[in-house]
Fold:
Amino acid sequence: MPTPARPTIPVALSARHAHLCQEHVEALFGKGHRLTPLADLSQPGQFACRETIEVVGPRRSIPGVRVLGPARPASQVELSFTDGIVLGLNLPVRLSGDTKGSPGAHLIGPRGAVKLVEGLIVAARHIHCSPDDARRFGLADRQKVYARFPGPRGLLFDEVLVRVDPAFRTELHLDTDEGNAAGIRSGQAVEIVTSLCRDLCGQEACPIAPGVRDGASQPFCGFTERGDVSFFRP
Structure:
């Protein structure tokens, strides 16, 4: 019997960017300033702005960081681990909006500067999923799954959090470090795997499988250890 096809969704690579509250928009770009849309993003209602800022860390700064709109209740800057090394900061992996205790930095705009006490993070890999696609793929909000990329630099990402909301367009969000590691580009398709043991191995009566948490851990067994077995066979 042929193996059922696993769900596939598109990938969106997220370059470094900033979300600003309206108070900081005006502090950086002038009193009464409103963010200026440059291009729509893949998620409905979200857009890249013409405005950019410079992020200043203890070691170096990164100029030209794109601001995304619309304005949010609180400011945050989403960077990669590589960006953190450049700035001289140890950035935590967090979901968007979870910035408590994260490092801060100075943000510089053409009309002023802001000292961000906290708010610099590496965005945790996640899937934006519409309710219809969640039902179709058998996914639930806050579920953790794997994302499988075939190819010469194929990778299997774990700890991928599913976020279900009617406002979402279904896609996997990764940062540029993750995309470069797997040799992928925005728009490519990725397979969603809910269980390594059930979906990729399928060995019956396995003593290890019951202890494996779907989407969050990998079993240590002959399947993952053997050199003649690959997750990325066509």
Q: What stands out?
A: Residues 227-234 have pLDDT under 50 and may be disordered. Helices lie at 22-29, 81-87, 131-137, 176-182, 196-201, 222-225. The longest strand covers residues 47-56.
